[in-house]
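Aim 2, interim progress. The first record below pairs a target sequence with its C-alpha cells.
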Amino acid sequence: MFYRKTVLPNGITVLTEPMDTVRSVALGIWLAVGSRDESSAEAGMSHFMEHMMFKGTPTRTAAQISEAFDGLGAELNAFTSKEYTCYYCRLVDEHLPTAVEVLSDMVVRSLLDESACQSEREVVIEEIARTEDTPDDHIHELFANTLWPDHPIGLPVLGNRDTVGGFDQGKAVTFREKHYVTGNCVVAAAGSVDHDSLVELVDDNLALVQGPRSERPRAESVTRPQLAVLTKETEQAHICYGGTSLNSRHEDRFIFSIIDTVLGGGMSSRLFQEIREKKGLAYSVYSFHSLYQDTGQFAVYAGTRPANAEQVVRLIQTEIERVRTSGVTAKELVRAKESIKGHLVLALESTRNRMTRLGKNESTGGELLSVDEIVQRIDVVTEEDVRRVSEEVFSSEKVLALIGPFASEDVAHLAG
C-alpha cells in the first residue's frame, strides 16, 4: 500500500503518503461538504465558510493566523468545490505540529463574528461580480446549471448575491454544526511525514463535534436537449457544449479520460487541430470532464467571434459524433495513453498534488490507486473500449450554453 490510513474513534480519517526525497510536507483538512450539499437558501455557504475560517479564533486574530504561517515560511490557502472544502498548508516538516494546531484552531474554533460576516459578505459578492464579468469562467456555471437545473450540483460554488447577502453569524454557526463534524473530516498529508505522529497530533488538536458522514441527494441527468443563452455584448462568443458523463468510481472512467484527451485534451487533439490550427476560428478550445460521486459531466469550451459561433458549434458537434461513431485511431490511442501517464507522473512529483489526491478521493468515496495501478488501467484500454464508451457517453442528451450578443431564438437551431 502506498499510503497509510487510520480512522480515529471519533470518526476522523487520517491518510498519509510518505515521500523520502523531500523535506517538506503538504497537509490538508478536508470536509466532505460543498455546494451540492446546500439548500437553495444556503447557496454559497460552503465557500463563505471557507473565507470565515481565516477571520480569527478566541486565541488568534486573522492577522496572527497569517503571521503564524508566514513565520514558518509556509504556504496557507483553502478551496471549495461542489463536493468538498479543503484547508491546506505546505511547509518544512519540522513545523508540522504547529501547522496542525493552527489549522485545527481555525476549523474548530473560528469565531464567525458578525462584523467579520458583514465584511466577508461584501468580499464574496465582489468575487461573484468578477466571475460574472469573466465570461470564459461564467459560461461553465451557465452550462452546469442547465445540465442540472433541479439540483444544487448545478449551482455556482460561490452562490449568488441574494443568498450570500443574507449570511450572518447565526447561519454560519448552524451550517458548521451540521457539516463540520468528525464523520465528514479527512486529514491528508504527503511528503516528509510520520503517520503515527500525525494521527496523535490530529487526535490532540482537531476537536470537531462528533457526527456521521452526511448523505447526499442523487443528481439526475437532463432528459432532452437544452439551450441556455446569456445575451451580453462581448467581443467573443463563449461556447460550452456537452452532457452528463461517468461518476468518480465508474470502471470506465480511465477509458473516457483517453477519449477526452483525443477529442480536446491538448495541442494535438482533434478539436484544437480542426478549429484552431486548420480554420483559425478560436484561440482557446478544449474539452474537459468532471467526475462526481454519482454523476459527471463532459464538455467542450471554445471562444470565438460571434459571427463564427455557429460554425464552431457545428464543428464541435461533428467531432464528438465522429468519435462516437468511429472511435479513435491506433496512433491516437497510444499518444493519449502516454500523455495521460506523463502528466500523472509529473503531477505526483508535488507534495500538494499527492495530498490532494488522498484527501479528494477519501472525501468523495473515490478509489485510491497507486501510480502503477492507474498506469495498468490505462495501458489495457483498447480501441473497442473507446468505441463502446464513446457510444454510451456521447449518446446522452446535450446542453449548449452560449454567452454573447445573441437572442435565444437566433441560435435555437444549434441545440440538440
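The second target in this work package is listed in the same format:
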Amino acid sequence: MAAIRQEKVAELIRRDLSVLFQQNSSSWFAGMFISVTQVRMSPDLGLAKVYLSFMAVPDKKVALEAVRQEGWRVRKALSDKIGKQVRVIPELNFYLDDSIDYYESINNALNQ
C-alpha cells in the first residue's frame, strides 16, 4: 500500500504531465493524443512509473518509444512546473497502459 505522500506526489505528477502532453504534443510528438492514466511512485519518491494511453495512433509501441526518447525534455518541463513543490524531480519511466485495449477485447468477446 502506498503512503499518503507517495499518492499526493503521484497525483501532482499525473496532473501536470497531462497538461504538458496536452500543450506540447504538437511540437514534441507530432500531434499524438497522449493521456496519462496512472503514476506510481517509488517509496523514496525518486522514480515515477508513468502509464500512458495513446489514441488514434497506428503503432502504440513506436509512439511509446518516441515519448521515451523525449523523456529528458518532459522531465525538464515537469521540473519547471513542480520544482518548488517537491524536493527531487523523479526519474520518469514510461509504460504503455493497455487496459483500454483489454476492455475492448473483452467487450467484443462478450458481444459475439
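The radius of gyration is 15 Å. This observation will shape the mutagenesis plan for the next reporting period.
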